[in-house]
């Protein structure tokens, strides 16, 4: 078993202001954020104030879209190079945080073509990075993964190396306080999905199981707030921490088929990432229950739920949608999802039949 998490994590209210020197990883900063998230969360202003008062020049790329493409990260990487940035600050949800990892690679490897990022063998080590999450879902601040949209391949794909972990993460729930209710729910379900996919993963071990169950206990206590759509500062703090714990465990085990099967839902139907996972989670767990019934029982217990039927009800309330699917499109998507590498760490055999059944029972 291997447990590796090189990110220095600062947690809690005002952790950035209280540890501002840790933000200053270099002499020229390139900030990667979304169109609105940096500003709405207040994190961008806090970062800029610290850089200004420490005379650190910076450039801001604030046009990262949701589910960022390889091309847009490549362009931002060029800008970082032209600016001579020597460190990267990612601010936002998983989209900007993942994009920042790609920018850190492209920013020092001028000979690379965009798709070379998937070789995961870079001549120059990526620039050091700092993360400030503004959603509580992906855990990208503590994972080595960057999930990008590959338009030509009609899907999303991740790259990762031991050098694409953030060096420092500031995990402060106050930056998630302005998140709209439905984005809060979608992203919370992504975090839950990470905790569950790691706990049920064939690669799980003592350390990851311990952390995943802790994350599920925190998450379970927030179900009421998630359903009511009302969050105290403590709720925000805890949902964000559950998300960071989810990141820590998938950094070790990876995810399983819920994530790979969720990607076409996002690519073809524009369904937000967390919601895509949540639509598939119950049927995934029903299949998992056939082979690891004790684990499924323990995870439900830690969430404070009595049965998978109750779990399903929570997902339905949190993820209202009227999206329709056809059998044909599901049959087409499954041809690709069944080949994903995380099918290999699924607790049951992720055959074409098994994935088809999960798709059909979840979505038709
Ligand atoms: P996101 O795409 O980063 O953001 C969703 C929406 O929330 C955006 O419109 C964003 O605005 C807005 N937003 C973010 N923070 C806000 C705040 N504090 N207040 C108000 N609005 C805010 O969503 P996400 O679910 O966090 O990230 C999804 C991406 O992460 C996907 O590409 C997924 O594949 C990836 N992912 C990565 C990992 C990993 O291990 N690295 C794991 C799971 C998922 P802006 O558009 O202005 O930013
Ligand atoms: Fe995810």
Instruction: Please mark out the parts with pLDDT under 50 across 5 or more consecutive residues, or reply none.
Output: none
General shape: globular
What's the CATH superfamily of the largest domain, by name?
Dehydroquinate synthase-like - alpha domain
Fraction of helical residues: 40-55%
Number of helices: 15
CATH-assigned fold name of the largest domain: Dehydroquinate synthase-like, alpha domain
Characteristics:
binds NADP nicotinamide-adenine-dinucleotide phosphate, Rossmann fold, binds fe (iii) ion, alpha/beta, 364 residues, Dehydroquinate synthase-like, alpha domain, globular
How is this structure best described in words?
The protein has 364 residues and is an alpha/beta fold. The chain has 2 domains: 8-174, Rossmann fold (3-Layer(aba) Sandwich), CATH 3.40.50; 180-363, Dehydroquinate synthase-like - alpha domain (Dehydroquinate synthase-like, alpha domain). Helix content is 51%, strand content 12%. It has helices spanning 15-18, 37-41, 43-53, 70-82, 94-106, 181-199, 206-220, 223-228, 233-253, 257-269, 273-291, 293-303, 308-318, 327-337, 352-363; strands at 8-11, 29-34, 58-64, 87-92, 129-133, 145-150, 155-160, 168-171. It has a 6-stranded parallel beta sheet, with helices on both faces. It has a two-stranded antiparallel ribbon with strand order 6-7. Fe (iii) ion binds next to helix 6.
């Amino acid at each position: 078993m291997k447990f590796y998490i090189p990110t220095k994590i600062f947690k809690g209210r005002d952790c950035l202001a209280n540890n501002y020197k840790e933000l200053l990883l270099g002499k020229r900063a390139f900030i990667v954020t979304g169109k609105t998230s940096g500003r709405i969360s207040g994190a961008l202003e806090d970062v800029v104030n610290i850089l200004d008062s420490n005379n650190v020049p910076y450039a801001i790329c604030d046009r990262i879209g949701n589910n960022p493409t390889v091309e847009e990260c490549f362009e931002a990487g060029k800008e970082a190079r032209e600016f001579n940035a020597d460190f990267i600050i990612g601010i936002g949800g998983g989209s900007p945080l993942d994009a920042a990892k790609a920018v850190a690679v492209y920013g020092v490897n001028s000979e690379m073509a965009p798709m070379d990022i998937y070789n995961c063998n870079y001549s120059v080590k990526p620039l050091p990075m700092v993360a400030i999450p503004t959603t509580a879902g992906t855990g990208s601040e503590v994972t080595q993964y960057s999930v990008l949209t590959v338009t030509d391949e009609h899907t999303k794909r991740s790259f990762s190396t031991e050098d694409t972990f953030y060096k420092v993460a500031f995990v402060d729930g106050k930056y998630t306080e302005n998140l709209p209710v439905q984005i809060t729910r979608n992203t919370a379900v992504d975090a839950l999905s990470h905790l569950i996919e790691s706990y049920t993963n064939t690669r799980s071990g003592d350390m990851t199981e311990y952390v995943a169950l802790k994350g599920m206990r925190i998450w379970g206590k927030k179900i009421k707030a998630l359903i009511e759509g009302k969050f105290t500062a403590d709720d925000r703090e805890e949902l964000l921490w559950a998300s960071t714990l989810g990141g820590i465990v998938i950094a070790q085990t990876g995810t399983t088929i819920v994530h790979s099967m969720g990607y076409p839902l996002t690519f073809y139907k524009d369904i937000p990432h967390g919601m895509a996972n949540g639509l598939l989670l119950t049927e995934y767990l029903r299949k998992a229950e056939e082979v690891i019934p004790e684990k499924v029982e323990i995870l439900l217990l830690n969430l404070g739920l009595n049965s998978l039927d109750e779990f399903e009800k929570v997902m339905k309330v949190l993820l209202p949608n009227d999206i329709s699917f056809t059998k044909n499109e599901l049959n087409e998507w499954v041809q690709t999802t069944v080949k994903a590498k995380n099918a290999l760490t699924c607790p049951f055999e992720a055959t074409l039949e098994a994935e088809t059944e999960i798709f059909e029972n979840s979505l038709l």
